[in-house]
Design goal:
By secondary structure, the protein is an all-alpha fold. It has one domain: Tetracycline Repressor, domain 2, CATH 1.10.357.10. The chain contains 9 helices and no strands. Helix 1 packs across helix 4, helix 5 packs antiparallel against helix 9 and helix 7 crosses helix 8. The chain is elongated and about 60 Å long. The termini are far apart. The mean pLDDT is 93.
Length: 206
């Protein structure tokens, strides 16, 4: 049995659940501190597993990081899919915008995007991770594009609107806004970026 990355997974349900708990804890820790600041010893301490147990499930830190990327991809998509899977009108997009801003404000703008922070830490160091993150962003973009395609079908966007290109512009605005909000510890940059993205979408309204 293999996971999404082609890596062997434990044969028992208990083993698979334990491996997943390690991945989830590592993802949380890395998101809070950053890739460079987290060691395998930190992860062992946070998860309460021994060194031998950790190496039973992962070959090395890179192997664990690749699993963390997939974990964060699934988390991000699960947060955004409910909006775009059933996207109908502009009010849905405004609620999505408010959800993101509220979430960042609740965190006092500490840390930005889980995938973005991994990309900043790994893209120039690990080609496998970079390819994985590129696919993660692409899958996120496809979720947004599918939602925008539904808006074209419902008549809220003109037929000449390109959902794929518009999805890239929305995602790029979101990433830039999250980074600036994290740096400033204030949501205003994020609000401006998302408002601009939605205004650009509205320029394609009938």
């Amino acid at each position: 049995m293999h996971d999404e990355l082609g890596a062997p997974t434990p044969p028992t349900q208990k083993g698979r659940e334990k491996r997943q708990r390690i991945i989830a804890s590592a993802a949380d820790l890395i998101f809070e501190r950053g890739v460079a600041a987290v060691s395998l010893d930190d992860i062992r301490e946070a998860t309460g597993v021994s060194k031998s147990q950790l190496y039973h499930y992962f070959n090395d830190k890179s192997d664990l990081l690749h699993a963390v990327i997939e974990c964060q991809r699934q988390r991000v998509l699960s947060n955004h899919l409910p909006t775009f899977e059933f996207l109908e009108d502009w009010d849905d997009l405004l609620r999505w915008r408010d959800m993101i801003v509220t979430h960042q404000a609740a965190r006092s703008c500490r840390n930005g995007c889980p995938l973005g922070s991994l990309a900043n830490g790994l893209a120039e160091l690990d080609d496998v991770a970079r390819d994985q993150l590129n696919e993660a962003f692409s899958s996120w973009g496809r979720v947004i594009a599918d939602g925008l395609s539904r808006m074209v079908e419902s008549g809220n966007l003109r037929a000449d609107a390109d959902p794929q290109e518009l999805a890239v512009s929305v995602l790029a605005s979101l990433q830039g806004g999250l980074l600036m909000a994290e740096t400033a510890r204030d949501t205003r940059s994020l609000e401006i970026a998302l408002d601009a993205a939605i205004a650009h979408l509205k320029s394609f309204a009938p």
